[in-house]
Design brief:
With 275 residues, this protein is of the alpha/beta class. Helix content is 41%, strand content 12%. It has two domains: 32 residues; 235 residues, TIM Barrel, CATH 3.20.20. The protein is globular. Bound molecules: zinc ion. Zinc ion (ZN) binds next to loops.
Length: 275
């Protein structure tokens, strides 16, 4: 037997082993979720609110988007009693860019659509607890001065910012982004940010998708426009899976509805809080 012939079985064994290891590692890559360190929704619970008011019962269609004032107060009391403290998305991004996890018991409170009542929510509910919220405003609804439209004015946006609250983008027109032509999609993202940045004292790097609707094309456009976070809802119709692939551009929130009591709130916080 030649040396070459003797080597062949070993070569075949190593080749087969290498092939097996290669296939195994490919399978592992395909089935193992990406690390979760950069997924803000994995480490910080994010709550979604729209309205605080007593009118949910008389407007059943809106009931998922209204919380009773006394229930909202109880939820904030619960957070304070359990040593939760609010952070904003700007702070979350700062932690991420420093490769740090936010402190334990961090929570983000978000309020969508830029209703004029946001100023009262900040004053009556958040300020007494020293809490900060993030308000997603769509710029097409915002006039320079208060005009009774039901939406915040730029004057009120500045009041929110000066009171320590954070305002971020919810597009220009609140259209469902996955239905828009590319040029309109780009306009919704870039124009809302540029308009908002002219009024607030910080970079606008966070976009909440209207209705939570987003798909791969919307996510790519959000990234291309320079945003750092794309915020979904917990009831979006258009979903992109697997979500690990998208991380910062598929950040989920959970919303509290009109009939949810403090027990539901506590259970959902336990589900989403840092483990
Ligand atoms: Zn909205």
């Amino acid at each position: 037997m030649t040396r070459k012939a003797q080597a062949q079985p070993w070569f075949a064994f190593y080749a087969a082993a290498a092939l097996f290891a290669g296939v195994l590692s490919l399978l592992l890559v395909a089935t193992t979720p990406a690390p979760r360190a950069n997924h803000p929704d994995m480490s910080v619970p994010i709550l979604m609110y729209h309205h605080v008011g007593d009118w949910g019962a008389s407007n059943p269609a809106w009931a998922p988007y209204v919380v009773k004032p006394q229930e909202f107060a109880r939820q904030l009391d619960w957070l304070a009693a359990h040593q939760f403290h609010t952070i904003t998305f700007q702070e979350l991004l700062a932690y991420q860019s420093s490769n740090m996890r936010p402190p334990a018991h961090s929570v983000i409170l978000t309020f969508d659509d830029g209703w004029a009542e946001d100023v009262d929510i900040a004053k009556k509910f958040l300020a007494p607890h020293g809490m900060r919220g993030v308000f997603f405003v769509y710029t097409g609804a915002v006039a320079e001065q208060d005009n009774g439209s039901g939406y915040v004015s730029w004057n009120q946006v500045r009041q929110l910012e000066e009171a320590g609250q954070e305002v971020q983008s919810h597009t220009v027109s609140h259209a469902s982004l996955d239905t828009l032509a590319p040029s309109r999609l780009e306009f919704e993202m870039i124009n809302s940010r540029d308009t908002m940045q002219a009024h607030v004292g910080h970079a606008v790097q966070v976009l909440a998708y209207p209705f939570g609707h987003h798909d791969a094309r919307v996510i790519q456009a959000t990234r291309d426009a320079g945003y750092k976070l794309g915020i979904a809802a917990d009831d979006e119709i258009v979903a992109v899976e697997p979500r690990e692939q998208w991380g910062n551009f598929q950040v989920r929130r959970f919303k509290m509805s009109y009939d949810d009591g403090i027990d539901v709130f506590a259970a959902r916080m336990a589900e989403h809080a840092q483990k």
